[in-house]
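Fold it.
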Amino acid sequence: MASSSTPTLKSCIPLPLDEAQLIDVVEKAKDWALMHGAAMRSKHNFNPDALQFAPFILTPSSFPRAEFQKAVRLQPVLNELIHAVAHDSEFLLETLKSTEKVDEFTGRLVEIYRTVLSEGIAQPLSLGLLRSDLMLETKCDNMCSEPRVRPYGAYCCWKQVEINTIASGFGHLGPSSKYLQSYILTELGHQDKLENLPENRALSGLCDAMVEAWKLQNRPTAAILFVVEDRTYNICDQRFHEFYIRETYPHVPVVRCTLTQLASARLGPGRKLLLPDRLLGGREASVVYYRAGYEPGHYHGPQEWAARLLIERSVAIKCPSIQYHLAGTKKVQQALAKPEVLRRFVGSDEAKIEAICDIFTGLYSLDRDEEGDEAVRLALQDPERYVLKPQREGGGNNVYGADIPAALAAMSGEERSAWILMERIFPPLSTGYMIRPDAGTAPPVPVQLVSELGIFGAIIGSKEKILYNKQVGHMLRTKLSTANEGGVAAGLGALDSPYLID
């Protein structure tokens, strides 16, 4: 949580706005968002036939150009790192051996991995559509190897929050935020500011990588399969991926199924993944893109787990493959924060090792050993400095600050292994208007905000060779400075885009 002494990044335009101008532009912006797919279904009043605009920040939030460019340059290196980790079965199994015993969900994933390893992995190629999430850091006490000095003194460097290897969302909503805010700045008479909004091709970059994987399979009648939730709230973000592929590559079939529907899928000759006859006429899927499967609630019982195993046993290229999914767990990311572990995957390239180490904040194991006991002591000594993170994706699962002692006290020694401890990042503040659906008719007021930048990467390859490796775009999520979690789909954050400052 930010304090009154937290450094602040200057707004891209003078605030507050004149009330009449504010009311006018907010109404226009809401309509623009709805008409251009910057929208989602309501979680509180779900209706498959209705959309509401996604929460958004009225004007783009300032972000230092040098740090943005650094993140863009580093993403292909992080892609390579995760790819190498995903193809080191000994490291994955050793790192997760304590977690799999006490975290049932991780245990089921590891069980699938062990099964396909014992059978022999049918498809050596994996497709990684990754998103590295980061925040600017203001507490610079020896945390950054190269503290940045700027006239406004609002930050020193950026630190990685996490890296996502499954269902890395906002490939559509990231770019659409830029277009929405470009429209707003133009309406407010600040068109000259648009040159500082960086190009964002996240949607095309992610989809082009999926099609590249499809081409590598060289089976023109096979489809790209989107594995989706039973009830999809973030529907625009998902569908625009599908629509982009169908418009840009009309010869590439795209289909959607839930894990439950895939219970009646089967393996054909050569371990081809054949989709259910009743739904899709037994068509083959040669690429599988997961937008579900990252949390326990997506698996209602044995049939969904059986479907996940069936897909892993097939020759379809998975995004992510089970090993990529495991490489994105918090426990693995905590292990990678150690330079001696990084050398296992990066080799002797000290420049790469230093660049990666520079972005890690403190990450600590909570295993039942001397290192874990020391981490518990640190957390209890100053809980406001830390976050407890479980092996989950999707947001809303972490434990912060004052709630940490009680959470630790409720855990057995073994249960601790399902969590890691992370030093909190204290980002600079910005000021802006957060526009939310169902917020009433009163004009919004300026509020204090903090932002999290996500950089997208795409990588395709086998254990022996990387065939494709790119940084493909970005997204920015912004939340109230008083909020811990910031997921837009969870209703806590808002769409935003970076306004680059020097």
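The chain is about 35% helix and 25% strand.
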